[in-house]
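> call design_seq(struct)
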């Protein structure tokens, strides 16, 4: 990458934008070129976004003709001119930051069906970060796939996507007819914002853009026919979780939410808030998992309850929700995640693998009793 390459790319983009009246108020918000991959974010108006959705392929083709560009990622971020406040923010106001699909035109445009060929969604959630939610989601999804369920796995954490690393996936998804095709990995259909951006790329997006990206990862991805889609929710109980539970309302009622917590009191307080969120959105809570339940020394096998023990079981009893099981805090779980092979696949007979698989069987029995 040279300054000349950057300058010529900017000139190419500017020429394209100034040639079309709807794109006149569009500007380059970010442009990076690393090892031949161009990452471009355009800041535009609602009118410009509608035009660029249709003109995206033409612009991308011109950019690929540049000798320094071998691949690219194009994202749009929209701003509104001063005036009356919009009716709604986020995905529902038309933000489509992944530059996929087409904006509906006219007020009478029918809403897009969300995951029409997915039988049920399992949302894996936690009230706070750092409790091992993503590791749990990945191993549960792999376990469900090994129970002969057609399984998908969606990494819905826009700011901190970990799925590509945990699955050892380095490929980029392709776009077909304006929709992303999921990457097949370990017998599952998988998707993550991490597949679309460089792993060092910081997603500096405000709330509406995050909501739009989350919606697109569901509606603008060709998930196909699945028995279950496991959604690794971002931690917390904010806008992202509300957007996903509302968008997936029907599918979640056919599935439900799994809450992951450590045994310590502070984590359980946040887990309780997560349960409250799902209850308010009429989402079934399938149960609570106690992760990092205990630690076994790899040398002497002595067990130590680093974060206490049994807190999640007691909390589940107090909240009158199922307790799904305990997952220990083990080096093997961490190593398998770092190496890109989930533990249930790397060592199916490992005690922790057996715990994941037992939870998956419980979920299958609950959601698909006729297939058991």
């Amino acid at each position: 990458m040279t300054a000349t390459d950057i300058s010529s790319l900017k000139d190419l983009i500017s020429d394209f934008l100034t040639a079309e009246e709807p794109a006149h108020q569009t500007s380059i918000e970010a442009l990076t070129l690393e090892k031949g991959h161009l990452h471009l974010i355009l800041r535009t108006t609602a009118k410009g976004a509608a035009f660029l959705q249709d003109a995206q392929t033409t612009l991308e083709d011109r950019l690929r003709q540049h000798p320094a560009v071998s691949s690219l990622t194009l994202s749009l971020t929209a701003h509104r001119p001063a005036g009356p406040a919009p009716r709604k923010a986020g995905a529902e106001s038309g933000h489509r930051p992944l530059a996929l699909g087409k904006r509906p035109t006219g007020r009478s445009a029918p809403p897009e069906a969300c995951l029409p060929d997915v039988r049920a969604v399992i949302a894996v959630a936690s009230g706070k970060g750092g409790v091992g939610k993503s590791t749990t989601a990945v191993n549960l999804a792999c376990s469900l796939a090994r129970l002969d369920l057609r399984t998908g796995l969606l990494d819905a954490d826009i700011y901190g996507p970990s799925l590509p690393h945990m699955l050892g996936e380095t490929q980029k998804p392709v776009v077909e007819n304006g929709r992303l095709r999921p990457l097949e990995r370990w017998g599952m259909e998988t998707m993550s914002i991490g597949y679309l951006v460089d792993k060092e790329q910081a997603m500096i997006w405000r709330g509406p853009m995050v909501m739009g990206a989350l919606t697109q990862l569901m509606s603008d991805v060709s998930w196909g026919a699945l028995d279950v889609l496991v959604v690794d929710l971002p931690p917390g109980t904010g806008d992202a979780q509300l957007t996903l539970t509302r968008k997936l309302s029907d599918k979640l009622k056919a599935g439900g939410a799994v809450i992951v917590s450590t045994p310590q009191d502070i984590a359980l307080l946040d887990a309780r808030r997560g349960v409250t969120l799902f209850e308010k959105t009429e989402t079934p809570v399938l149960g609570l998992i106690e992760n990092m339940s205990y630690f076994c020394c790899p040398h002497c096998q002595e067990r130590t309850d680093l974060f206490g023990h049994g807190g999640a079981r007691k909390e589940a009893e107090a909240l009158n929700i199922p307790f799904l099981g305990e997952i220990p805090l083990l080096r093997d779980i961490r190593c398998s995640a770092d190496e890109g092979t989930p533990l249930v696949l790397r060592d199916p007979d490992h005690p922790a693998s057996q715990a994941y698989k037992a939870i998956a069987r419980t979920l299958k029995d609950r959601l698909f009793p006729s297939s058991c």
